[in-house]
Specification:
The complex is a heterodimer.
Chain A lengths: L7 H21 L6 H4 L1 E7 L6 H10 L4 E8 L2 E6 L4 H14 L4 E8 L3 H27 L3 H29 L5 H31 L4 H33 L2 H42 L1
Antiparallel strand pairs in A: 1-3, 1-4, 2-3
Chain B lengths: L4 H19 L3 E8 L2 E8 L3 E4 L4 E4 L4 E2 L1 H4 L1 E8 L6 H22 L5 E7 L2 E9 L4 H9 L4 E6 L8 E7 L3 E8 L6 E7 L1 H13 L7 E3 L2 E4 L11 E4 L5 H13 L6 E9 L1 H54 L3 E2 L1 H29 L4 H31 L12 H37 L1
Parallel strand pairs in B: 5-17
Antiparallel strand pairs in B: 1-2, 3-4, 6-8, 6-16, 7-8, 9-10, 9-13, 11-12, 12-15, 13-14
Classes of the chains: A alpha+beta, B alpha+beta.
Chain lengths: 292, 445
């Protein structure tokens, strides 16, 4: 049997490096917030021919419409980001596009007012808090120990933080936007992370009941027994997500990336964060008890 | 009643066959050209249409696509209730929602969806209009308060100041568009209810020979001069309308005035082409991913993997059928939720098979199978319940105002939780019985 738990410090160190990278990215660049959070307008159009983005930007400025970016999303397909447009401004915007091209086709037009973002953040925090508490209670109840519940939740926060940190970097280098779909991916990571952790914990619980023994050995045994399953399971989810990322189209690409990061981190964190945390926690509480 | 595994497998297959019937498209074109042999016709899959005196079931088994896939507009309005006391606020919002719903329905949009949401003192009305791309007209139609008032001009002394009469839009029975016989222009004809007709007769009697301006939302739209007392209970507004304007005005008048003004705070429009592209791409992505999973399972677990693949295909068929039966409004995040639940469905099988590999070393296959299913169940149950808890919070079925009440998060959570529920069934019942039958055949060999 491999002595997985002997290398706990290495696992914590690896996680620490990634978390530090995430914190660095968040502090230096922050998250690249989309219109869902900031408010604003995004409009995607398909044109008959390629257009000169500079010319269009200038013309729009002439009408008092500031474009923060124009992105090419496909063949002769452009996405404009602007401050929020009201219906009259939208008309102006459309007229200008029509001077640049014969018949631009509107693929998507989204305007989000500035009040929507804070509401989205609050609702998401509430949802995450309720889900976390419910999971904590469920795990603590099923495993008859708050130690299991708390370690599972800590591993879960580890994964959500990984994802947020990763998007600070991806946002800066590749323009990955944090939007409504990102929030969904974040919340899914919560559940996936715990899903995976419970499978390993279940093995500890089972062996404990059957053979007894100390937590350290039980943790090693459970990690060994579930390693192949964890890998195989993440492969199947990775297959689904990678194909979604590569073939799913531009709207869903970053969503798939976010889920992918959450899945990888969730799989990693079960044996290498949640279980080591459990062992370390067990050691500390034992020391405290003996000292008494 | 206890069924043998074989009987259970047959029941499962029958269930799958009826699910296949549900998921087939309603029209299946068949074109075969083979020498003399030539078939070119469209098969129609009839829906379910049962009606008795007590109940009626009518389902055509169509998949309902959300706005992001089918194209359409999602509008969010904020109600300006600031001046209203708390007690009246609730009823004002309720009637606001109703008026907007009536307006949208009268406008003739198929299957609109109007819902209200309140969060920390902000009151919103969410309007979803499938297939509507020109939002400007829709926004104007929905957003106008449509407060109709008739104003009496004072008797000579202060002619510039009007006095609002007690005749308002609330006295209306019906507004219709008709064409002026002389000018051919569209005008709006108002018919009053009895009480309104009496008020109107009194007002016109008092004002013979004087103008009687009609205001809509504090803007004069028409200033007719009263010729004589009108007792018939009908009036005509001949503003300088285009046909569309006149039509929209009648819609607004017929639906009633908005009790509080509203403001557009969010607008999302997706064209049908982008939606169709998303559907096509995610189906391709899903099929490619699924195929890779199927191959991987055979590669990793051999014959067991094939059984898991069969169970997985049954999972897909049952899930799609349920989407149509419930029905679930499928959105882009919803598709992602489905794909993720495919991953979770495979997981149950992987957990069991890994267990089976261990147990198989200790005992014969049939016993090992039962033992592994029993042992794996604990972790499958605990893990899936944890996921279901999260999905439940996200889907917010009890409509708690402090959680997400609409939008992509919900669509995702609904397909994910359905997927988990079905995966428990296919993982534990379907694969298990398939394996049992498979083992029996082995013994007979």
């Amino acid at each position: 049997m491999i002595n997985w738990m002997a290398y706990r410090k290495i696992y914590f160190f690896v996680s620490g490096i990634f978390i530090a990278l995430g914190i660095f990215g968040l502090l230096k660049w922050g998250l690249f917030l989309g219109v869902d959070f900031k408010g604003g307008t995004i409009a995607e159009y398909k044109f008959q021919d390629s257009i000169s983005t500079e010319e269009v930007t200038q013309k729009l400025e002439g009408e008092g419409i500031e474009t923060s970016s124009i992105q090419i999303t496909g063949e002769k397909q452009y996405m404009f980001r602007m401050s929020p447009l009201n219906p009259n401004e939208k008309d102006k915007f459309k007229n200008i596009l029509e001077t640049a091209d014969k018949s631009p086709e509107e693929l998507r037009f989204e305007t989000v007012g500035p009040t929507i973002g804070p509401e989205l953040v609050k609702k998401t925090l509430y949802a995450a808090a309720i889900a976390s508490i419910a999971i904590l209670l469920w795990v603590a109840y099923q495993f008859k120990s708050i130690m299991f519940g708390a370690s599972a939740i800590l591993a879960m926060f580890h994964d959500t933080f990984m994802l947020i940190g990763a998007f600070a970097l991806l946002g800066h280098f590749f323009g990955a936007e944090v939007d409504f779909l990102f929030v969904t991916a974040l919340l899914t990571t919560l559940s996936f992370s715990v899903h995976d952790t419970i499978v390993v914990y279940d093995r500890i619980r089972e062996s404990q009941g059957k053979f007894g023994g100390n937590l350290y050995d039980l943790a090693n045994k459970a990690t060994t027994e579930t390693m192949v399953r964890s890998l195989n399971n993440s492969f199947t989810i990775l297959f689904m997500l990678v194909s979604l990322m590569l073939l799913g189209g531009s709207t869903i690409k970053w969503f798939a990336v976010a889920l992918l990061i959450g899945t990888v981190s969730g799989t990693y964190s079960s044996p290498f964060v949640a279980v080591p945390l459990l062992v370390t926690w067990g050691n500390i509480s034992k020391k405290v008890i003996t000292r008494k | 009643m206890k069924f043998s595994p074989l009987k259970k497998v047959i029941i499962i297959l029958l269930l799958t066959l009826s699910a296949i019937y549900v998921i087939l498209p309603s029209k299946i074109p068949v074109k075969i050209h083979f020498g003399e042999f030539d078939i070119d016709k469209t098969f129609t899959r009839p829906g379910l249409d049962i009606s008795t005196s007590r109940f009626s079931i009518n389902k055509d088994f169509e998949l309902i696509l959300g706005l992001d896939l089918a194209g359409g507009s999602h509008l969010v309005f904020e109600a300006k209730v600031g001046s209203l006391p708390d007690a009246e606020r609730k009823s004002a919002l309720e009637s606001l929602r109703n008026v907007i719903e009536r307006r949208v329905n009268l406008f003739g949009i198929s299957e609109p969806n109007v819902q209200s949401s309140s969060f920390e003192g902000k009151n919103r009305i969410i309007v979803e209009l499938p297939g509507v791309k020109d939002t400007k007209e829709a926004v104007n139609l929905i957003g106008q308060t449509a407060q109709l008032v008739f104003v009496e001009i004072g008797t000579g002394e202060e002619p510039s100041f009007g006095v609002q009469t007690d005749l308002t839009g609330a006295d209306l029975k019906k507004a219709t568009v008709i064409f002026d016989k002389n000018t051919g222009k569209p005008v709006v004809q108002l018919e009053f209810i009895q009480e309104g007709a009496e008020k109107f007769a009194n007002i016109t009697e008092r004002n013979v020979g004087k103008p009687l301006p009609i205001y809509l939302d504090n803007v004069p739209i028409s200033t007719p001069v009263v010729q004589e007392k009108i007792t018939g209970g009908s009036a005509i507004i001949s503003g300088d309308f285009t046909l569309n304007e006149a039509k929209n005005l009648t819609v607004q008048l017929n639906a009633g005035a908005l009790p509080v003004p509203i403001e557009l705070v969010e607008q999302r429009t997706v064209g049908a082409t982008l939606g169709a592209e998303s559907v096509e791409k995610s189906i391709t992505a899903g099929l490619v991913g699924l195929l890779m999973v199927l191959i991987f399972m055979v590669f990793a677990y051999g014959k067991l993997g094939m059984v898991a693949d069969l169970a997985l295909i049954i999972f897909g068929i049952l899930t799609l059928a349920l989407y149509k039966l419930i029905p679930v409004v499928l959105t882009l995040p919803g598709i992602a939720g489905f794909l993720l639940s495919v991953g979770m469905a495979v997981d149950s099988n992987i957990l069991i098979f890994e267990r089976l590999k261990e147990e198989w070393k200790k005992r014969n296959f049939a016993d090992a199978l039962e033992v592994s299913f029993g042992r794996a169940w604990d972790s499958i149950r605990d893990a899936n319940i944890a996921t279901l808890v999260t999905a439940f919070v996200l889907a917010n079925p009890l409509d708690f105002p402090f959680l997400h009440t609409s939008g992509p998060v919900r669509g995702f959570a609904i397909t994910l939780s359905l997927g988990i529920a079905i995966s428990l069934f296919t993982g534990l019942v379907v694969s298990r019985n398939l394996l049992r039958v498979f083992v029996k055949e082995k013994k007979n060999d």
